[in-house]
Design goal:
The chain is mostly helical. The chain is built from 21 helices and no strands. It has two domains: about 20-470, no CATH class; about 475-540, no CATH class. It is about 85% helix and about 0% strand. About 55% of the residues are buried.
Length: about 550
């Protein structure tokens, strides 16, 4: 909520930039398409990065080390970066711009940047100094030599993480100005730098083991620096100049800081839950952390499109709607925007869940099976990936519910439910990790994700008077799921019957099975009135 002396002015329909009636869905679709395009590009290059890394490291001990070190950096990035800024910085900045107060918005952005730089410097320094202890907390199941290697990588990863956190500030500014494509495509630079580092060190210089892992880490640090320079250059004209202001005198900065505890609780609990999963997996033997990381990466590819992308496109628009002083009209606009997002998410989740749950081996064989990543690695990762598939719709919907809460200034509710999620996930993982291994840990995360989504949905429905679910066509979604499952499974059976199981499980056979899934979606979704490929291409153009 904004400070009381500004509520009336910000909410005044004569000053707020209200979307014309009947137009919100068009803007939402364009925004979502741009976010999706940027994320698709960055994730595809990220997938190439993972394939190159899998070629050199497979599911070896060094793959475990890389997974743990980058996981630590990822936690800090998500804690201070995009997740927290989405809940605290973007809603305030977007409301100021919606009210036509551009000068105040620019000063607020510069003050936020100054505070963020100070936090990054302190935490990066602490991370480098305390790397051995941080590593021990995250991966206590590692052997001493493995822990030492991980700590050396963490000392490189922490400064890289600081640069990526600052990238999140630029992303917030660009998103609030409806510049969606570049912020989500920029990580291509980060991935490309790592690919180049692996190829130079691994193929040209013939490095292996720790030297190659360190080359990968230094490449990531360099890529983060180039990415930050690009995003800052694009954000600079939007805020006047990149002049960080280290001050707490800005009233809007104080408002954003008041939102931080709830946002940090929510993001902190989510990251803590992920760290606990990494900790538990570290006790499950060589290759367990790598298996967990590969499966999570493949799951996060669609999750970024369906959950993160839709939520990122929704937040500035929802924040603008929340400035409307007419509560009934505000809630109606928010319900319509939320329902449209849920509908798009559900339609695209259907074939993705089929690929993760039923066609995991084909997906992994096509995308990762190369070099040291062999058939046995594929089988290990496929079992974990199938469980992640059941979590996709819950986590994507939960992101949208949380986004609606953030737009309304509510960060504490999502924070409390994230805490419930962490407790539930850890309890189930502890109960199942011994009999089921990595699969048991992911079952805990999956079941807790559904619990959090239900709780967030109930809270959002009370706040808005509904969720806009009339826009979700449940019967047609069920028909789409049946077609999308039957066609590729039928093609898999025919390939095995006609050409043998060897070909059916090869990369070529896997490509045919997944092509059948894509074709069945391309035909069935428009036929059921759920998806129009031409409209998506038009929005992309």
């Amino acid at each position: 909520m904004l400070p009381e002396d500004h509520v009336e002015r910000v909410g005044d329909p004569t000053t707020a930039q209200q979307a014309p009636p009947g137009r919100p869905e068009d803007g939402a679709r364009r925004s979502a398409a741009l976010v999706t395009a940027g994320i698709v590009l960055s994730r595809l290059v990220g997938l190439v990065r993972q394939r190159v890394s899998a070629h050199y490291f497979g599911t070896s001990a060094f793959a475990d080390v890389i997974a743990a070190a980058f996981r630590i950096g990822n936690v800090v990035q998500n804690l201070l970066g995009e997740g927290t800024l989405s809940a605290s910085f973007i809603p305030v900045y977007a409301k100021l711009r919606a009210a036509g107060r551009d000068d105040e918005a620019a000063r607020f952005a510069q003050s936020a940047l100054g505070l963020l730089i100070a936090a990054v410097l302190v935490l990066s320094g602490l991370g480098v100094a305390l790397a051995p202890w941080v590593t021990l907390l995250v991966a206590p199941g590692f052997e001493p030599d493995k822990l030492a290697v991980t700590a050396r990588l963490v000392r490189i990863v922490f400064p890289m993480t600081g640069l990526l956190v600052l990238c999140a500030w630029a992303l917030g500014v660009l998103n609030a100005h409806r510049r969606f494509f570049l912020p989500y495509a920029a990580p291509v630079i980060w991935s490309a730098a790592q690919i180049a580092a692996l190829l130079v060190a691994g193929s040209w210089l013939g490095q292996q083991g720790e030297p190659l892992a360190q080359a990968l880490s230094w490449g990531a640090l360099a890529g983060a620096g180039v990415e930050l320079a690009l995003l800052m250059e694009r954000a600079r004209p939007l805020v006047g100049a990149i002049r960080p202001r280290l001050t707490l005198a800005d009233e809007w900065l104080r408002e954003a800081i008041r939102r931080l505890p709830g946002a940090l609780l929510g993001r902190g609990v989510i990251q803590l839950s992920g760290l606990i999963d990494t900790l538990l997996v570290s006790f499950l033997g060589t290759g367990a952390n790598a298996t967990f990381a590969y499966a999570q990466m493949l799951y996060l590819l669609p999750m970024s499109l369906l959950g993160t992308g839709e939520a990122a496109a929704s937040l500035p628009e929802m924040a603008g709607y929340s400035a409307d002083a007419d509560t009934e009209r505000r809630n109606a606009l928010l319900r319509r925007r939320l329902g449209a997002g849920l509908s798009r998410t559900a339609v695209l989740a259907v074939p993705t869940m089929v690929a993760l749950i039923l066609l995991g081996r084909e997906t992994i064989a096509l995308l990762l099976q190369t070099g040291k990543f062999d058939r046995s690695s594929t089988e290990r990762v496929a079992a974990v990936l199938a469980i992640y598939g059941f979590a996709l719709l819950a986590n994507a919907s939960g992101r949208l519910f949380a986004t609606a809460s953030f737009a309304l200034g509510d960060t504490r509710g999502p924070g409390r439910y994230a805490l419930v999620r962490m407790v539930a996930s850890t309890a189930v993982a502890l109960a199942l990790m011994q009999p089921l291994g990595v699969v048991g840990v992911v079952v805990g995360a999956m079941s807790a994700g559904w619990l959090e989504a239900v709780l967030l949905g109930r809270r959002t429905r009370r706040a808005l008077g509904g969720l806009g679910l009339a826009q979700v066509r449940f019967g047609r979604l069920g028909a789409l799921a049946a077609v999308n499952a039957a066609v590729p499974l039928g093609v898999r059976w025919l390939l095995g019957w006609g050409l043998g199981e060897g070909f059916a499980s090869s990369p070529g056979g896997s490509a045919l099975v997944l092509a059948a899934l894509a074709a069945s979606f391309a035909v069935a979704a428009p036929a059921l009135g759920l998806f129009e490929l031409r409209s998506l291409i038009g929005r992309g153009r």
